[in-house]
Amino acid sequence: MNISIIIAQEEHFKYAQIICDTIESSALLRGTGIAKRTPEYIQKKMENKDAVIALDNGVFAGFCYIESWQDSNYVAHSGLIVHPDYRNLGLAKKIKSKVFDYSLEKYPNAKVFGITTGLAVMKINSELGYKPVPFSELTTDPSFWKGCQTCTNYEILKSKENKLCLCTGMLYDPKEKPKTPPKHPFNVRIWNRLKKIKQALFLED
């Protein structure tokens, strides 16, 4: 395989539909909530050079895009996906690292954050230097939280006034410390236990 990870541009518009389909099918397979994207939205990110795409000699392999909030003081990476044919190759980590470094270059003063229920994404974020934080440390921009409306867990988020959900908030502040590996390695068992506790609390009748 000859997989390249590059900044997505207008020439990659043709991949927008398969990107959306792959994101949605992956969420359905995992049974997790995820905000839906449209091909037009993905193309807009490509047009603004706010996305990276992984290609194997022209065949779609993976994708991730950048969103910015509050005058670019906060940025987030969304839609991280790897096509089923290219999973278990460490590609997700490579894509995330690429978009992370690109974000620091394009938005040098921004705090980088994300919310996710996926343990694989949490592990990658932790290795990049993110730390778990309460939602109060994330952007307060209403348009960000509006993007959660198509997620299956949105009612939980709304009932908690955007302060809590099944997702975990994670933040990287470039002014706080340099990009170094965390002192405490990511522990999947601990995160699984915390995730189950949160689900029990939020989903009980």
From TrEMBL:
Record lineage: Bacteria, Pseudomonadati, Bacteroidota, Flavobacteriia, Flavobacteriales
Name of the molecule in the record: N-acetylglutamate synthase, GNAT family
Family matches, as Gene3D superfamilies: 3.40.630.30
Matching InterPro entries: Acyl_CoA_acyltransferase, GNAT_dom
The organism's place on the tree of life at top rank: Bacteria
A GO molecular-function descriptor: acyltransferase activity, transferring groups other than amino-acyl groups
Domain N-acetyltransferase: 1-151
